[in-house]
Write a structure and sequence with these properties.
alpha/beta; Heat Shock Protein 90; Rossmann fold; 3 domains; 6-stranded antiparallel beta sheet; 16 helices
Length: 587
């Protein structure tokens, strides 16, 4: 803020006239202070007014900072102590605040309250100081002269009036800042409410329409099969329709669930995130689609930043899949990034058919599809928008029909303090294989499957032991309490359970409660546990890890999911003989 246009009050021989002029000047100062919106503006106004009102050679604006005096600003014929801090007990401004009274010192070298060594390099010969807010001082205003001088009582009264006005201005700024923060909080709350309202509409739409279609398909074809409809030749097709409908239902549930989790900023956990690893993971997840469509996906060297790695993979995976689905066979997709003043800007460019200008905004709305026959949930780009927004960025599309499309999103710059943190912190389920000495004892591992659903028990057995040809000794407990009893009985017989495959959602005692009991029992805490559940909830995975689980597998169980987890359990070994895979105990 520029210095206020207040002129010096001229010295007048008649004290009453001088006092009147000074009070008129003070009115203008009060008006300026009433418009100030931060302490810096107040400091500029006060330092100039303090000097002009008394004709001083210097003025300083001091704020209390704990047990120190902070010389925030000054207006003087030569430098004083702007920007410095001194202990309250060692300076006159501190004495004024501690004693809650003004002081005049005609000769600084004759007063014990003055640290003369600090004043000796300056022009100061005399001074006057008044507290800002007399009841509980928060600062002080000082006037200095290059000659020995005693201010008049009128000058001190005017200086104190300025200090009293300043205290009101500072309190107003505090109130203004508080109000501004409350307004911001209210705006943020309204934005969250709006986002939650949109999410509720998405959830309602999914329940009312999108989820009904696969359910109707499953029910209809199931009824046909039960009633003997169709022919033996068509029944395999009916089962295929049912399988595809079930896949679509699972996809819709997962997608809508993920969408509903993105309204709460507290769920965003930032970690060191190498975007090169993120793109590679997205390509691996889309490998079948890329090969099927003959697509090419390339990327430049991308930065490391602080973000939620799984969210970033979701964004890039959705954008890449979107380009492949809507492009011709052999479509080319390229990912690049460049750093700007506000962070990183990522681009996902394809050479497909492009998007009409009036559709480039609409495509980010939930369930807005450009084509009628699409197998997706209609939430892919909406998810991207939510995730990028949650990270403080924005996303948009630039395209010309016939010339491809470019999706662009921004992210904040990386946190330099996290650059060198081990990248594997988010890969606890797929840790690197631990070194082994190659020695194994040819004894099959004992596996206890804990699940209350008979259908899931049978699926897990069939998928692991029949489909994936895994060899191990399998026993079953239909609940957590039954499993704890089985573990205790095995221990009493000097037998060993090598691995628990543990469900989460079970009646009575759930899987997390069982984990807690295992950790609390020294005789059982050594048992390796891999969660085998239908939950894809991030918080469930985090809690399982915190409670000591060795891994987390989403149903249906498979050797592909199990292998990296089993490789990281020193007490177990996987050994293949060409026909099957043996899960054995280590020596």
């Amino acid at each position: 803020m520029a210095d206020p246009p207040f002129e010096s009050v001229p010295k007048i021989d008649n004290p009453s006239q001088s006092y009147t002029r000074a009070m008129e000047y003070l009115v203008g100062v009060v008006q300026a202070l009433s418009q100030a919106r931060d302490v810096g503006e107040v400091a500029v106004i006060v330092r100039n007014a303090a000097r002009n009102l008394t004709g001083a050679d210097g003025a300083t604006f001091v704020l209390r900072d704990g047990n120190a005096c902070y010389y925030a600003d000054e207006n003087a014929i030569a430098p004083l102590w702007k920007g410095k801090r001194f202990p309250m007990e060692m300076c006159v401004s501190g004495w004024v605040m501690l004693n809650r009274q003004a002081v005049t010192i005609p000769d600084i070298y004759q007063d014990a309250r003055v640290p003369t060594e600090a004043y000796r390099p300056t022009f100061v010969k005399s001074l006057a100081m008044v507290p800002i807010r007399r009841e509980a001082p928060i600062g002080a205003i000082g006037n200095y002269w290059a000659v020995n001088r005693t201010p008049t009582s009128e000058e001190m009264a005017i200086l104190q009036a300025l200090a009293d006005t300043t205290s009101v201005a500072l309190e107003n700024i505090q109130l203004y800042d508080t109000l501004r923060e409350k307004v911001k909080a209210l705006e943020a709350q309204q934005a969250r409410i709006q986002a939650q309202h949109e999410t509720l509409e998405v959830f309602t739409r999914a329940l009312a329409h999108d989820l009904r279609e696969p359910v109707r398909t499953v029910r209809s074809f199931s009824d046909l099969i039960v009633e003997g409809g169709g022919t033996p030749e068509t029944r395999p097709d009916y089962f295929d329709f049912i399988r595809k409908a079930a896949d679509r239902m699972a996809m819709l549930i997962d997608t809508v669930f993920l969408y509903t989790q993105l309204d709460d900023p507290s769920r965003l956990v930032r970690k060191p995130c190498d975007m090169n690893d993120v793109v590679q993971a997205a390509k691996e997840n889309l490998a079948h689609l890329i090969i099927e469509r003959g697509a090419g996906v390339t990327y430049d060297i991308l930065p490391k930043l602080s973000a939620h790695p799984t969210h970033m993979m979701q964004v890039l995976q959705n954008l890449i899949a979107n380009a492949i689905h809507h492009g011709p066979e052999g479509v080319k997709v390229h990912i690049s990034a460049e750093q700007g003043e506000d962070g990183w800007q990522f681009s996902v460019l394809d050479d497909g058919p492009g998007i009409a200008a009036n559709d480039t905004t609409r495509i980010f709305q939930p369930f807005k599809r450009l084509n009628q026959n699409e197998e997706g949930a209609g939430l892919g780009l909406s998810l991207c928008r939510k995730i990028v927004g949650l990270h403080g960025g924005r996303i948009w599309c630039e395209s010309t029909v016939g010339k491809g499309a470019k999706f662009i999103f921004t992210l904040p710059p990386p946190d330099s303090d996290q650059k060198n943190i081990d990248r594997r912190t988010d890969k606890w389920m797929t840790r690197d294989n631990l070194a082994t000495d190659g020695s194994t004892q040819e004894k099959l591992a004992n596996v206890l499957l804990v699940d209350d659903r008979k259908s899931d028990v049978e699926l897990t057995r069939v998928f692991l032991q029949v489909r994936d040809k895994m060899k191990f000794n399998l026993s079953v407990a239909n609940g957590a309490r039954e499993a704890l009893e089985a573990l205790k009985q095995a221990r009493s017989r000097d037998e060993k359970i090598d691995l628990l495959l543990l469900d989460i959602n079970m009646p009575g005692m759930d899987g997390f409660e069982m984990l807690e009991k295992l950790q609390a029992d020294d005789s059982l805490k050594h048992v390796a546990v891999i969660m085998c559940t239908g939950s894809t909830y991030d918080q469930d995975q985090m809690r399982a890890r915190e409670l000591g689980a060795s891994g987390y597998m989403v149903k249906p169980a498979s050797l592909a999911q199990l292998k990296p987890m089993l490789d990281a359990i020193p007490a177990l070994r996987l050994k293949g003989d060409g026909e099957s895979v043996h899960l054995t105990r280590a020596a």
